[in-house]
Amino acid sequence: MATKAYGANAADKPLEALDIERRAVGPHDVAIDIAYCGVCHSDLHQVRSEWDGTLYPCVPGHEIVGHVTAVGDHVSAFKLGDTVGVGCMVDSCQGCPSCDEGLEQYCESGFVGTYNGKTDDAPGHTLGGYSQNIVVKDKFVLKISHPADQLAAVAPLLCAGITTWSPLRHWKVGPGQKVGIVGIGGLGHMGIKLAHAMGAKVVAFTTSESKRQDALDLGADEVVVSRNAEEMQAHANSFDFILNTVAASHNLDAFTTLLKRDGTMTLVGVPEHAHPSPNVGALIFKRRSIAGSLIGGIAETQEMLDFCAEKGIVADIEMIRIQDIEDAYARMQKSDVKYRFVIDNATLAA
After folding, report:
1. Residue 299 contacts by C-beta under 8 Å, 6 or more apart in sequence?
2. What is the pTM of this model?
3. What distance in Å separates the CA atoms of residue 196 and residue 185, rounded to the nearest whole number?
4. Residue 220 falls in which region: left (phi positive, over 0), alpha (psi -120 to 50) or beta
5. What pLDDT shows up at residue 94?
6. Enoyl reductase (ER) domain location, by residue (predicted)?
7. Which residue, among 204, 208, 206, has the nearest Cα to 191 in the 3D structure?
8. What gap in Å lies between CA 75 and CA 320, rounded to an integer?
9. Cα separation of 16 and 7, whole Å?
10. Mean of the pLDDT values across residues 123-140?
């Protein structure tokens, strides 16, 4: 099935219009016309070969919202016209017990990414959501119940939403807890919204005084400028959990010392250069932990989508045409977006 897409043929080439092929719908497949696709910083890293192993042509995009146009003979959970989503995974190994628990992202044999993952389909690797349509195995398709006028803002939930939801759920964030969110950006703004909706007291950390009101508007109970030593010291030894969304190398000790005994700080951002080694004493004397978390499994992602639909939670977005993707990348590198770009995939036909 021929479809229009946008992608790059080399790391030093701009994204451009491409004609690609999608496989025929198999017995367990779902075909989706893509209405919107979020723009993730990982798209930029991968298409520019800033991460190892980029396969070209590279068509990014793993925050996909659209409508079902065909289903395989063995598909019963979806029907034509359903509003659905596709996140970061489109396949995994078979028979791994963890997959039965919805934890495909931690499968020992790995998972197949929505783009740049090895596949039998031409051209030998997956091609993502900067395209008109996609064909996905049914168990990796997600049901979306948000109203139609929110669908564009739902798209980033498929990555930014689940990336922050998964650690908040795993470390059982809820009422009575004091939770810190470090960084107010594409991930951090979702962390604030979700932790607030879960009933926690939310403290947002930013390096910029200008973001104080923004964080409060997102649902933070309090905002700390992390460059202000007095503001930081006022919260020493007081957090049950801190979600650190910052993808730049920084001093982790400034935040671990804010944790209570047995508190955990979870990292979800991957810095270009390693963080300075943490102070071990600050960890062992209060049994504090530094952990990491990836995206989330399919069952967990569905749980997040249902929770967000119930609570009316979506991402804060700026819609763009696909033809403006290079400008969006340049602005994203300067953090010049509040807080996620989303492509109107109808513009692929222009």
Report:
1. 101, 102
2. 0.94
3. 16
4. beta
5. 58
6. 13-343
7. 204
8. 33
9. 6
10. 96
